[in-house]
Amino acid sequence: MTLLVISPDYASHLLPLATLATAWQDAGERVVVATGPATASIVAGFGFDRADLVLGRGSNPGVIRAEHQPPGEDDALRGFFDATRHGMVATLRYQAEARRADLLWEPVDRARAVLDVIDRVQPDQVVVDHLAFSARIALAAAGVPHADVVLGHPSALPVGDEVYGYPTAWPAAFTAPEAELAALHRLCRDVRDAFTDEWNAALRALAPGAASSADAFAEHGDLLMLNYPAALHDPARTELLPPHAFLGSAVRGEPATDDVQDWLAADDRPIAYVSFGSFLSARGDVLATVLEALRPLGLRVAVATGSATGLPDVPPDWLVRSYLPQVALLDRAAVAVTHGGNNSVTEALTAGVPMVVLPFSTDQFAGAAAIEAAGLGAALDPNAATPAELTDAVRRVLDGTAPQLARAIGAKLHRVPGRDVARAAMLG
């Protein structure tokens, strides 16, 4: 049997998909990953075959920097970072406008490239990233059965009267005037309609006579797989989902490097792990506030700085690197301070670690709201939280019931790994 995994050229997308594919690899089956050149080393590290497939203008091998992106994409990334400084609504408006161009990049050409990979690989099963719209339109046009993996918060697939890009929930720390929210909702509807028109035009070019979509953002594969714990998902929303499987998490094995192992062994005090992921680490101003907030707590601190610059000096016993083995450090952490990206959230929960979440964009708001509602941590506005407020939030999380609740969730996620759920669901 051959499994084909289709992923954009982004490490944050490929890593969980590749982790799911290890269940096929361990069963002695062939795995081919179709993705771009930036993440080729990740594919090789997993021991998979690779088919070259570029699905978008940008790429991210692990830490994204605007200056490493192609012309146009660099300015778009800088614009996004600037929008995050103006708050939730400004960021979501920017992302909605950008969505007109970045989610269906050269859709007919890219779809034909996907179908060429299908012809060459001849897979028995196909797993595709939900956000790889050009790939999914190819599979739909050709009638290729496939599993569609939502790697972000489940709200990335709208159900009921939801509109893609408009948060299904946000934490208590975030407020906005009703008029601004109404305008954002209108913009997201307009973008949905324009995106759907483009999807339908590409679909007709690929498969004349194919049925049109009413909402391309709500399209999905034959099997929907959600990289998210079912326990955190609103049961009423679960009832609206198409046939699906909650994977819980897709956490890879990630051994600590020698220097990290030495640091972990040097002291047994509780550890705070800090990371804003591959994109939002650019917000060095917020990261600096977090570092200041952690000073008085007496914790050991491990900080993945990513692309952040201008950070203050920190105590000499803190571990500060541009990149750190997140999974290995979370296994030892007492609390995580995070932007709330879905990989970070699911990896922290699998390790049984409560969180202080500072969401900046997209589904991070809904994810942070779920963490807050479940008592698994606290959520603050990254543009407004002071060092004192962050210090207090970390203390409250550590001293409350969040650690116990997180350990209980982690125990459940460990019992049935997401990769095993995915394989069982696909084998039927």
UniProtKB/TrEMBL annotation:
Concerning Pfam families, the annotation shows: UDPGT
| The protein's name in its UniProt record | Glycosyltransferase
The protein's superkingdom reads: Bacteria
The species this protein belongs to is Nocardioides flavus
